[in-house]
Predict the 3D structure of the following.
Amino acid sequence: MQQQYMQRLWLVRHGATAWNLEQRFLGHTDIPLTPIGRAQACWVGRRLRLEHVRAVYSSDLQRAHETAMIIAQQCSLQQPVTVSSAWREMSFGDWEGLSYTQIADRYKHQLGFFSDPINHPPPGGEPFPHLLQRIQVAFTQLVQDTAHADHRGDIVLVSHAGTLRALLCSLLDIPLERQRPLQLDHGSLSAIDFLPTAENVAATVSLALLNVQSPICARN
């Protein structure tokens, strides 16, 4: 009989980019961290250096991947970061790079996303069910990797606010319509625990931490 043990998965929202600081919609557009974003990533890395991190997973977009690389370096991780497009933020389509004010002005009759994002994707953007499906598949793969690992330790996932909120809703049985109160700031740390060898992994998930930030970098 396989021994049961709790697995800690740290959930990290990437550090800030210029578009984030300018409050512009940023989904699949690939832009780097700002100095503030790198400082946020360094804080996360220093905090996780106190834990026994054995693996880091990341979105393939550079703002997340750069954050993940900084964390891996701070934790003296020997193995490479596992990168996947499945952990990307949702695509905002025609709204990429625009502020809310610009969207409200240019797309007056296509604003359903703001009241019902589950059923109204941004014009040319990714439907929410598609986002949910890809992250559920990615999480299943992560669990399988964990269950077959030859040693224990914490895992870190660096991703995006919308992606991480959707993952938390899926695992904690929170209605997707209630995802907005799950605040995840740039460079923040959250964590869940689960039994990777359980028959129903989702039923074992518990929220251990939500949206902890560096007091210096908070709200930037």
Summary: Strands lie at 7-13, 53-59, 82-84, 154-159, 189-194, 206-212. Residues 128-147 form the longest helix (20 residues). The mean pLDDT is 94.
